Structures are given as C-alpha cells and as structure tokens.
Amino acid sequence: MLITQTIDDTRSAVDAAKAHGRRVGLVPTMGFLHEGHLSLIDVARSAGAEFIVVSIFVNPRQFGPNEDFARYPRDEDGDVRLLLGKDVDVLFLPAVETMYPPGSQTTVSVGAVAKPLEGARRPGHFDGVATIVLKLFEIVQPDVAAFGRKDAQQCAVIDRMVRDLDLPVSLAFGETMREPDGLAMSSRNSYLTPEQRAIAPVLHRALRAGEDALRHDVESVDSIERLMHTVAAEGAGVEVDYLALVDPETFEPPVDFDRDLLVAGAVRIGKTRLIDNIRIPKEAIPHTKIG
Length: 291
Ligand code: PAF
What we know:
binds pantoate
C-alpha cells in the first residue's frame, strides 16, 4: 500500500493505475476505521473497482464551532494496519493545508436536500462535506466512490451533487454495519463511557419501533414519530435531537405512504451525538393514508 500525502503523488499513482486499464475506486473516510469503513472497500470492489484509494482526512470544514473537530478520534497506525489487511492500493493522508491552502475560498453548496434534519441542526456541515468530496473526486478521479448509508442524508447530498455537476463517477452505497445489539458502527461510539454504551442501542430500537409501526397498522407520521420518542425515552439521559419519518429523496416529511420511506434519528448521550436510520421499501408499507 502506497501512502501519499500530496495531491501530485496521489494523482501519479492513480494515473499509473488508469494507464494499466484499472478502474479506480475511492473510499473517503475521516479515519479511526471500523468494520463499516472496511465494508465500503468491498462495496467499491463489487461495483467494479480494481484499484482502491482510501482517503483519511478529518475535514475541519464539516464541523461547527461547537462540534468535536479537535477531539475527533484519530489512530493512524491502527488505520494503516487495518487497510493493509484489505489489499488497499493507496492511502491518501493529506494535511489540512494541502486540502485548504491559505487563500482557499470556494465552497460547494447543495440545495434543498441539504437543508432539513442534519442540515438544519449542523449549519454548514453539508457545504463542508460536498466541498471536500468534490475535491477528493477531482484529485483521485475515481470511476466508483463508496459511502455508507448510516449517513443517509450525506449519501443523498453527494448523489445530488454528482448529478447536478455531471461528475463522471458512479456512487456505491454500503449498508450500515451494526454491533450485535443493533448500535450502528461509528467512530464516535468510542466517546461513549461503558454506561452510555449500554444505553446507546435505544436509538436503533426507537427506529425499529417506527419501522414496525410503518409496516403494520399505524396511520400517521405523527403517531410514528411519537412512538419513536416514547421508545427513546427509555434510555436514561438520552436527549433526542430528532426522530423523524421522511421521504429519503427530500428528507422532508412524506407527502404520502406510496413510496420508500426513511425513519431517521439523532440523539445525544452526554457529549456524544449519534445518528442512525432505517429505509423501508414501498412494498412493505401497507398504508396510503397519511396525516
Ligand atoms: O462520512 C464521512 O466520514 C465524511 O463525511 C466524508 C464523506 C469522508 C467527508 O469528509
């Protein structure tokens, strides 16, 4: 595995692979890798990538002033060890000044899909995500790029950007990897104390309750959201940021039940903010009634 820190070295490695006719896959990450990230390497390969570039960059522009940029977990040696086990070709590890040299002033801003839920609670977050992802696409010029569905709205924002800007990359989305008790894998789980970790699966349980209600006989968005709040309240000290039933294309409340739907949630446990979601296919939703 070649480790690059500069844009030129990364481009040279990719150019050489492309010259040999290899399809390039990119897996952008912020490091502190876990099974969820590693599964995205397999997702990129299944989508046809033959030469895998993983990037690790804790992107300051996607963190708000009161968020966890400074304490975001980092473990470069551990990440390198995990990637060596996955036959990765290039690990791109740029410094902040490489990605945002002094004087840098361009931001990519995706429209309506970036506004609700995470967009409303984390102003500027998706601008930061779209800007860094576009820059990574420009540097690596991947044929395929893989992202995890745990960040469902991020996937939709990136998909919108790719379509709006006619970017020549296919996106591949990986299913959320979970701990045995249902907790979605996340680098931020490492912040949880043992007591908080024991409570954390309540987010997934709340979303499962919403999913079950939707698959059975519940008639309104309100009643599903109330049910999810009731389940989340079982977790001592859990503060709900949102628990919502939304249209997975717009992330707004659905206009009817005749489409795929998404239950999505964000909660705070102590200083840790966790997100998760479950997509429910249209075929599994019996109702056409909505309120
Ligand atoms: O999902 C993440 O880890 C980040 O948002 C991403 C896509 C690597 C951009 O910084």
